[in-house]
Every structure is written in C-alpha cells, then in structure tokens.
Amino acid sequence: MEWQIWFAGILFLIIYAFIISEKIHRTILALCGAALLVLLGVLHQHEAVNYIDFNTIGLLFGMMVIVGITRKSGVFEYVAIKAARSTGGDPVKIMIALAAVTAVASAFLDNVTTVLLVVPVTISICKALEINPVPIFIAEIMSSNIGGTATLIGDPPNIMIGSATGLGFMDFVTNLTPVIIVIFIVTVLLLKVIFRKGLQTSEENKARLMAMDPNEAIEDMPLLKKSLAVVGLVILGFVSHQYLGLESATIAIAGAAFLMLIARQAPEEVLLSVEWDTLFFFIGLFILVGGLEKVGIIEGMAREAVKITQGNVTLTAMLILWFSAIASAFIDNIPFVATFIPLIQEMGQIGHMNIAPLWWALSLGACLGGNGTIIGASANVIVSGIAAREGHPITFIGYMKIAFPLMLVSIAIAMVYLLLFFV
C-alpha cells in the first residue's frame, strides 16, 4: 500500500534526524521506530525478527563479554605503560606508540572499549610529563577508527558488511589491512608534524615516567593467562571460521562462554559489562531498514543509483567511498551502513555488476570517515567527554581543523588503492 511506503520512509528520516540531534538516546529512537512499524502493520512480527542480523548481534555480544573479563586483569594498562616507557619518555614518540597500541587493539576490540582502556593511562602519562594530553587524544581517536577498519571485528560497519555478504575474517585482513597500514603511517607522520612543537617536556618529567612500573598494572595474573589463551583461540577461530563452516558469532559466543567457565566469573557481573544499549540499537535499526526494504524504497534507490552511474563499477565505487566518508563524518556510520548494505545488494541484482569492490569502498569510507569530526564515531564522543571532565576540552572546530583534512588524505589513499587493485 502506498501509505506504507510514505510512512516507512518518513519514519526513517525522522528517526535519523533525532539520532543526529542526540536529543533522545539512539537506542530508544530505534526501538520506538521498529515498534511503530510492527504496530501499524508495515511489518508482521515474524518479518521484523527475520530482518534482525543475529550474526552481528552475537559477534558483538561475545566480544563484549570477552573484553569485559579480560580488562579485569589489567593487561591493557600494562601494554600502554610498557609502550610509553619504550620511548624513553619522549612525548612525540609516546604519541606514536600509544597511537600504534590503539590501532592494533581496535583491530580486535571495538573502538569504544579500546579508548576507554587507553585514555585513562594516557592521562596518567601526560600528568607525569606535565604536557597537554589533547594531541595524544586526537591521535588515539584517529588511530582507533583507522585500526578498526582493518578487520572484520574491528568496527561495527565491518561486522555488518561481513555478516550480510558472507565475507570472512581473512577477506577483510587481506583486502583492507595493507591499505590501512599505509593510511596509519601517513596519518601518524602528519600528526607528528602538526603537534611536535606542542609536545615538549623536561628531563625530570621523563625520568618520572620511566619510574612507572607496568607490572603494577597487572591485577590478576591467573585471569590474564586464561584470558589471553581464550583470546588466542578466538582469533584463530576467526581466521579459520570460513573453512570450519562456522559463523563468526558462533566463535565469539563460544569463546565468551568458555572464558566465563574457566575464569569462574559470575554471569550477572560479566553481563553488566555488555553494552546492551548498543545491541538493542542494532536490533531496532535492522527492523527499521527492513521496513524500507519491504515497501520497496531500497530497490527504488538502487535503480536510481544504477541510472546515475550507468552500472559503471569504478564510478559507483568512488561515489560510495566519498559519499560514505563525508556522510559518516557528520552522522553515525552504523545506520548509514545499515541502509547502504541492501542498497548495494539491489544494485548488484539490477545492474548485473560485480559488487565486490563496492563492499570495500563502503567499509573504507564509512569507517575512515568517522575521523572527520568529533561526532563522527562513538569513540570520538567518548574521548571528548573524558577530555572535558579532565579540564582539556576538545572543541568541535578545533578537532575538525586537524582531523577533517587528515580524513580526506586517508580517503584519497583509499581511492588510489581501490583504483589500482579492485576497479
């Protein structure tokens, strides 16, 4: 019915506008929108449930449990202090070291968890050196989004793309990690040039940092050993899950259950560390996008996109890369990617084109685009909030002056990479 088309489209735009405004929590908005679609008969309940991607939900849940248990051991603080001490107390080298730790951690943990673990240690290090932590915060924000792009599990958009397409852990590693390494190196070198004058400290302060003992950060050695063993098995499972015929969510949930068993963790305590609001935001969002798909809006958008690009894969990939990057700098990339996934699938069916390069364009654009502004990704918002509480606010314009040009550089590198190797 025509009213359903109008209702689903207008409802999605209203929900999206409120998500951008941040006046109401995005989880409440997504669930209310999903409920309205079912209550008014646009979707039947069983249809709504079928649109939920439980592989994405399960993968996020499993990794949240594993990280929640592992962080109690103090291993993340240990690594950050060890990295800082390895630089000899040089603030510029510390910025690079912590950026590298953040990027690598973000490839295997979600970005929010990574910055929540790294930022408190950064504050302690900067206090010891008596330097402004903002340059290092900015480096960590950008590194978390860059590192998260490298793997299937590093950033929610990649999890969603992998789940929708059947692309596995190694597909993301082989196709995205090489260019992400280049982008990370270029970004860090440019940050070094931008911030080197502001990152100066005395020899006395360097000595104070070198006196910090990373071993004191380890709070539970038996838990550390068990956690690292399970994390290793889970990563091995991700690498081989396609060959084993298992979904990535199965690997993550099995790892979480096994770690809870051998670490003897109380379930009610462990489950408190799960970001339930994020999981239910995804559930509501999948149903909202499902509504657009059912009434035919996604198919209509796909037909228009094919008309504009005339089925040219190169032009389509470049359009998706740049559009998703600019859009993701200002709006949450999760609902953006949730809308684009079925759109690309429809484009492949209508235009009979090879859509494989389009998935990499969407991933690179949406994940790297989050670096453009302080509201571009959840990790950015988290770090800016902590920085403000510590008396070092990161302003929207101040961040954007530095980060937006660097984001454009990263997208330009990604564009060259796509043109050379995919389209």
End-to-end C-alpha gap = 40 Å
Q: With helices defined by DSSP (H or I, 4 residues minimum), what is the helix count?
A: 21
Helical residues, percent:
over 70%
Mean pLDDT level: 87
Structural class comes to mainly alpha
Instruction: Name the helix and strand elements from N-terminus to C-terminus, one letter apiece.
Output: HHHHHHHHHHHHHHHHHHHHH
- The total of beta strands comes to 0
Q: Note the main sheet.
A: none
- Shape estimate: globular
Roughly how many Å is the radius of gyration?
Answer: 22 Å
- Spans with pLDDT under 50 lasting ≥5 residues? none
Question: Mind sketching the topology for me?
Answer:
Elements: H1 2-21, H2 26-39, H3 45-51, H4 54-70, H5 75-85, H6 91-108, H7 111-129, H8 134-148, H9 156-165, H10 169-195, H11 203-210, H12 221-244, H13 248-262, H14 267-270, H15 276-295, H16 297-309, H17 313-330, H18 333-351, H19 356-369, H20 378-389, H21 396-421
Helix pairs in contact: 1-2, 1-15, 2-15, 3-15, 4-9, 4-13, 5-6, 5-7, 6-7, 6-8, 6-10, 7-8, 7-20, 8-10, 8-20, 9-18, 10-21, 12-13, 15-18, 16-18, 17-19, 17-21, 18-19, 19-21
